């Protein structure tokens, strides 16, 4: 075997090893790491809204489901409620304005839960009294770490 044939064989082997290493690196970084990342879906579902006096009583269910492959330690979780009233303007487009009379708009949730295992679901049923308004905005904040 001539020297040029040896060099071509070694170059082909190095190329094949480089392609295999790049494939393993891509699988690890874009496949396995993504799968092992924490994935939590938060859902808010109103179950009942009843008119009471000058406002409403709102029943809702808040769930947090861990669909990832690693657990999540809950650090902070709360529900924020804001009421809005629609106001017409000259162009006929409805404008929303935040009500300034909404009392106690932040409520802590999942107080009895600290760690969300893979596949586990936190669910909490809540009841709120809100002022009469055209719209109700609900925002859930869940802060956690792996």
Could you explain the architecture of this structure?
This protein is α+β, with helices and mostly antiparallel strands. It folds into 2 domains: 1-36; 38-145, Immunoglobulin-like, CATH 2.60.40. It is 23% helix and 49% strand. The chain contains 1 helix and 8 strands; from the N terminus they run H-E-E-E-E-E-E-E-E. The protein has one helix spanning 3-36, and strands at residues 40-52, 55-66, 72-87, 95-98, 106-108, 115-116, 121-131, 135-145. Strands 3, 4, 5, 6 and 8 form a 5-stranded antiparallel beta sheet that branches. Strands 1-2-7 form a 3-stranded antiparallel beta sheet, with no helix packed on it. The longest helix has 34 residues, at 3-36. The termini are far apart. The relative contact order is 0.22.
CATH topology title of the largest domain? Immunoglobulin-like
Q: Using the 3D structure, state the CATH architecture of the largest domain.
A: Sandwich
Looking at the structure, what is the overall shape? Answer: rod-shaped
Number of helices: 1
Q: What's the alpha carbon Rg, rounded to whole Å?
A: 27 Å
What is the number of strand segments? 8
Task: Write a concise synopsis of the structure shown.
The protein is α+β, with helices and mostly antiparallel strands and 146 residues long. It is built from 1 helix and 8 strands.
Task: Supply the key terms.
alpha+beta; 23% helix; 3-stranded antiparallel β-sheet; Immunoglobulin-like; 2 domains; 49% strand
Topology:
Layout: H1 3-36, E1 40-52, E2 55-66, E3 72-87, E4 95-98, E5 106-108, E6 115-116, E7 121-131, E8 135-145
Antiparallel strand pairs: 1-2, 2-7, 3-4, 3-5, 3-6, 3-8
